[in-house]
Write a structure and sequence with these properties.
Length: 180
């Protein structure tokens, strides 16, 4: 053991730090691994913890009244588990945002949306023109405002709205389907 002005160095096969009252190993290091045995590991750096390789833990939690942020600033973030990944917001909203495409994919099952209300915002409105279905009024101010729409799907899966009529107003040749 060498204790100098700038550092304390130890050369040994195994180094341990134990709690004075219980004798529990708080820190141990050998050639193969480093073990931190405290009940709680607290990293106080402003940049958080940086791991060069994988992280394996049964639980990650933020301090009370603090947000937890898992971030990969330049690459992707992957969470994998052989028995499923669960994301739960018990008392608040769950938001998923991205710059490009959001993919929900189930290779062997279904995607189940279960809510009192499911809204699809900013869907394009297609046009439906059929002389037998809609009669055009000479004065647009006296025509009733369209408030009921039909949800339509293009052959490629893109969704759009079409003014509801007595029968289906969805058309695979809709301008929405042709330009998507």
């Amino acid at each position: 053991l060498i204790s100098g002005a700038d550092a304390v160095e130890a050369q040994c096969k195994r180094f341990e730090v134990r709690a004075s009252d219980s004798g529990k190993v708080l820190f141990s290091a050998d050639e193969d691994e480093i073990v931190i045995g405290a009940d709680r590991l607290k990293v106080t750096g402003t940049e958080g913890a940086v791991f060069g390789h994988s992280v394996e833990t049964p639980h990650i939690r933020a301090e009370p009244s603090q947000d937890l942020k898992l971030e990969s600033p330049t690459r992707s973030l992957v969470m994998e588990a052989p028995r499923g990944v669960q994301v739960n917001a018990a008392a608040g909203d769950l938001k998923a945002t991205c710059r490009k495409e959001l993919h929900l994919q189930s290779t062997e099952g279904e995607i189940f949306l279960n809510a009192d209300t499911i809204r699809l915002g900013n869907l394009p409105v297609g046009s439906f023109s059929s002389s037998s279905s809609f009669s055009s009024s000479s004065s647009s101010s006296s025509a009733p405002r369209q408030t009921i729409y039909e949800l339509c799907a293009c052959p490629n899966g893109k969704l759009y709205l079409s003014p509801a009529g007595a029968g289906s107003t969805c058309q695979s040749s809709s301008n929405i389907c042709l330009w998507s």
